[in-house]
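Backbone-to-sequence.
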């Protein structure tokens, strides 16, 4: 879920030059698939089918503090971790790890994985609904949930519906999605909402199964490998619901996508999408793209792994994990750089800085159509206007002294700069 903590993350991701070509550092390599990433207790946890990190033994998980690794060397039976969730200040997993004749849900004890509510089946999905419930789905589609004070119990009538693939909270309702025609007698094509009392469909639903969901800018985004329409709107693998209607997301995936969209992550810069694609909305974006609310931006990465599988923000930096059966990797975004011939190294100029009354903003004549937004230190939008020529003036005379940010968005770049108001 999106957590707009501060504009600092925004600045780290959109540094002084943020044209669409991304540079990534390789942080570590693993001998098997990286299934999920999760920030917990000041570290970045990596989970999957892994048994080695950087060539050293580490069963199913390891965690990174920004400079060094702590490996999980205690042997726990099973075949790996599928997904993490933080609930009640503890780290849980949906997995295929074995705990005394049961398997499926584990909890981190600080040094190893204990039974966190397992059954006799492995689990593939886990979701923490704020402070209220922790939900899990097992390999036969059974849904269970628990509170912070009670153990897992079966959830309503969805039990044994083996077509539920994922769930999320949106506008105070639980959204269940997957591949189905109805739930509890209510017709709902592949997606339905539960308000705690009754089930209702989201419009006329979608054509094609849904594999992952995320909420960004108070809209619900859904992805599916064979998603072709939402409501009556043609889409391509991704669609969004605003609470009353469905719409396309910038043209969707416009390339082959053999293994589908694997993860959606709302970050401070926008909605990040990773998976097995090379183009989205007509933009070349190898495995990684960012939706900023109006258009797709290339965050693509050069690598030799099968595809990018998961994403997470840690210490205000963006990390992604890859899917490969022999050598997967953890990558970190270093910068977005301009590699095109016509790129200008500094697109936006601001003066005076510090400013007392009027702030002047100029961009190159060739980029004269842009949107200029002034934000405070908490990332709240104070004013926004269209820049129709190559300059604009913002009146800051009525603002308190302090630090502000100017965000300029054009068709070819996004740039954010810090302003000091005296």
């Amino acid at each position: 879920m999106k957590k707009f903590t501060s504009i600092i993350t925004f600045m780290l991701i959109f540094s002084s030059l943020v044209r669409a070509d991304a540079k990534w550092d390789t942080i570590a390599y693993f001998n098997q698939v990286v299934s999920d990433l999760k920030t917990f207790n000041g570290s970045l946890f990596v989970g999957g089918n892994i048994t080695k990190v950087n060539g050293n033994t580490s069963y199913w998980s390891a965690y990174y503090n920004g400079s060094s690794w702590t490996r999980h060397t205690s042997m726990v039976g099973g075949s790996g971790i599928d997904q993490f969730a933080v609930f009640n200040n503890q780290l849980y997993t949906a997995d295929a790890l074995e705990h005394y004749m049961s398997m499926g849900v584990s909890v981190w004890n600080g040094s190893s994985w204990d039974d966190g509510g397992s059954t006799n089946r492995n689990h593939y999905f886990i979701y923490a609904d704020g402070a209220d419930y922790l939900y899990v789905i097992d390999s036969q589609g059974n849904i269970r949930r628990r509170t912070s004070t009670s153990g897992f119990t079966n959830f309503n009538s969805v039990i044994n519906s083996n077509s539920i693939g994922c769930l999320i909270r949106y506008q105070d309702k639980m959204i269940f999605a997957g591949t189905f025609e109805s739930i509890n007698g209510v017709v709902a094509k592949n997606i339905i909402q539960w308000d705690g009392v009754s089930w209702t469909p989201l419009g006329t639903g979608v054509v094609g199964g849904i594999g992952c969901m995320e909420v960004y800018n108070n809209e619900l985004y859904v992805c599916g490998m064979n998603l072709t329409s939402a409501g009556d709107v043609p889409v391509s693998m991704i669609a969004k619901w605003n609470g009353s209607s469905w719409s396309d997301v910038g043209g969707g995936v416009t390339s082959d996508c053999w293994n589908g969209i694997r993860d959606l992550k709302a970050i401070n810069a926008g909605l990040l999408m990773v998976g097995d694609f090379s183009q989205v909305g007509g933009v070349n974006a190898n495995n990684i793209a960012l939706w900023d609310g109006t258009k797709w931006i290339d965050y693509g990465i050069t690598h030799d792994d099968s595809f990018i599988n998961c994403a997470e923000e840690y210490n205000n930096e963006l990390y992604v994990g890859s899917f490969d059966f022999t050598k997967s990797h953890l990558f970190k975004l270093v910068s977005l750089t301009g590699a095109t011939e016509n790129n200008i190294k500094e697109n936006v100029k601001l003066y005076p800085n510090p400013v007392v009354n009027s702030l002047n903003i100029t961009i190159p004549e060739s980029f004269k159509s842009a949107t200029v937004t002034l934000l405070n230190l908490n990332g709240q939008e104070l004013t926004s206007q269209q820049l129709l020529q190559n300059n604009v003036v913002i009146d800051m005379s009525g603002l308190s002294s302090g630090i502000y940010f100017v965000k300029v968005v054009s068709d070819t770049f996004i740039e954010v700069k810090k302003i000091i108001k005296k």
